[in-house]
Amino acid sequence: MNWLPLWIACGVLTFAIRYSFIALEGRYRPPGWFIRWLPFVPIAALTALVAPEVLLVAGKLSLGIDNPRLWAALVAIFVATVWRNTLLTIASGFVALGLLRWLV
Amino acid sequence: MTPAAAFLLGVRALLPMLLGVAPFGVIYGVVALQSGIPALAAFLMSSLVFAGSAQFLLAQLVGAGAPALLSIGAVGLINLRHALYSASVAPVLHVLPRRWKLLLAYLLTDEAYAAAIPHLLAAPKSPMAHWILFGSGFALWAGWQLSTLTGVLIGAQLPSDLGLDFALPLTFIAIVVPLIDSRARLIAALTAGAAALLLVALPYKTGLFAAALSGMGAGALAQGRKKR
Which residues from B are below 8 Å from A41, CB to CB? Predict the structure, then answer.
């Protein structure tokens, strides 16, 4: 297996994707709608990463008590809303997950 | 703020995520070896490609004897969402010399972006913004290299139900929730989350990219309505 050229090709492509808009900045002006969409990147992208992690179990929507990650995530969302503290949010999520697993 | 202080701020913002990333890196090392990839190749993929879920997929595709072009295409699709991060940080990095742009683009992952973006949004004009992103990017890079090396060398299976991988969604929650300070932003989050669930079956995680775009569009639309 000739892995080195394949790794390099995949690495160059990944890098090109990450460099794309950083390289273009100032030389190319994206359309207006795209500029209006941009401020929503962190919220939309990170929520899209989180939702399947906490709402799906083995690829299926799971809203019951048998999905402790969902309830632990809701506790974390509540703590984050009230206290806006990163470490407290993470700790509360883990404590809630541990308690739920122990109880259920 | 000094460069060192900004760098450490970025490192500190990323540290909790290493709880989730390190087991993932160890498992990658094990999975890559099981796919028949030599130890050195498995480890070097972590610096040459440097993209968690894409590395899992690439290892599995190579193990299954997939054609090179298909593997490259799949890696490109999985990493497409990074173009959004690139567009998001581009204005902040605009004034930097090219070597900084190259370095920070190489380090631009989900985790580094998530850890740095609240600080970049708070002070986009700060002359130290790139040091924060560098700190987050470097911390994730070092953690990823060390954990994949551990997986490749030790090859032992970690107990998989420790639940440490939950650190990543929890950290993203801790970052996203305080950013939701308007109706438009709430709509963007809810739309992106719902779309991610609906599109989860799309191949090569393209559903993530589509879900992020739909959330962005919904947020912009809601904001536009309000202004008119």
Answer: 84-85, 87-88, 212, 216
Strand, helix or coil for residue B95 = coil
* Whether the Cβ atoms of residue B153 and residue B33 lie closer than 8 Å to each other: no
Q: How far apart are CA A97 and CA B170, in angstroms?
A: 11
Rounded CA separation B79/B66 (Å): 19
For residue range B181-210, list pLDDT tens digits in order: 999 999 999 999 999 999 999 988 899 999
Do B172 and A23 lie within an 8 Å CB cutoff?
no
Q: Do A18 and B215 touch (CB under 8 A)?
A: no
B184 shares its domain with B153: no
Show the domain range for B15.
3-157
Using CB atoms, pick whichever of B16, B86, B121 lies closest to residue A19. Answer: B86
Q: Phi and psi at residue A21, in whole multiples of 5°?
A: -75, -25
Beta carbons of B211 and A44 less than 8 Å apart = yes
Q: Do A40 and B219 touch (CB under 8 A)?
A: yes
Q: For B3-22, what is each residue's pLDDT tens digit? A: 999 999 999 999 999 998 99
Rg (CA), chain A: 20
Residue with tokens 């309505």: B225
Q: Domain count for chain B, please give it.
A: 2
| Residue B175 belongs to a domain | no
Contacts of B82 in chain A (CB under 8 A): 14, 17-18
Return d(Cα A53, Cα A56) in angstroms, integer. 6
3-state class of B38 per DSSP? coil
Please compute the mean of the pLDDT values over residues A61-87 and round it to a whole number.
95
